Amino acid sequence: MLQGYRLFDADAHAMMSPRMWETLPQEFVARRPRPTRVHDVADMGRWTNGWLVEGQIIPHALGPGSQPGNEPARVLEEFGAETHSAEFPLSGFDLSDTGARLRGLDYMGIDHQMLYPTTLYARMTNDPAFEAALMRSYNRYVGGQCAAAPQRLKWAGLLPLRDARQGCEALAEMKELGAAAAVVYGTAGDRLLCHPSFTPVWDEFARSGLPLCVHMGMSYPPFADVCNGLLAAHGIGMSLPAQMAFVAIVGHGMLDRYPNLKVGFLEFGAEWMLYMVPRLDHYLPIDRSQMPIKTEVPQRAVEEYAKSGRIFIAGEADDKLLPQEIELLGEDQILYSSDLPHGEGRHNAAKEIIARKDINERQKQKILYDNAVKFFGEP
Which H or E element spans position 371? Predict the structure, then answer.
């Protein structure tokens, strides 16, 4: 609790750790991501370490596929990088010490926290079988670590889509391990989430009762390839695929085919909804009249789906248009997120929401706690 408000953090992260791949099938062990360090560092700044994955070092700041963060915490520590505060040490970031994570939550006043993988999982490999194996190994690690405090440490399991058999098996496994949601990125490679090849996974997912989380990440290869710097990565490569997911889910009839599906969009603010919803509704009458397959267009106005209580958005604490977001979506669908321990995550995100003068006390409590309970369920 913080300043009298209960906090349910809808978006935080477990930093990557070599322990996340301890349960990889033997056939993939030699290909596992490995922490590595660049030794020619004269002009590298802080970009001197990363993960060696499928022949490339990620993250990197320059060249195609540039993206920020997610350095190996252990490598940082071993090479003398400054660790974070004693209240929230590196050992809590990657969940190697769940006690340290809980002490960090206590320090910040967070009652419950929803954990996601780092965004590197959005584009580690082009091999669907290896991708699924990495995702399932991550799920086992995080599920096992969060089991020490299941009411406070909630987690979303990675859902592989490009291998339908693995996707269905991963879904059953994550439920057994205690996942509170499933998470995907904005695209699965170069395919929208509504692609027919994913239907067997979505059919099974609809029966699971879990909420679906769409997280920002550099999942769409053409966007990734044109990003030659970090600002482009944030503005294009990582954010636009998640908006593509909104179009795929709402604009291609998935909410009609799966009437109990609830979807949350995380870590790229909510201001984009003020553009996207009216833009889609502008074209909807034309597209509805011209589409030969009527199930491929939404049956209602996109704004109706946005207000239906099935779409949740994790806005940023400093979104300047938060009152307008509430007007569009309703006050019951905006989520609070810290994004910790990523670099843009701020220890005072909840404090910023509490201090805002343009929303009322009821709306603050809903954003900080109540809406997450509506989406994820009671802790």
Answer: helix 371-376
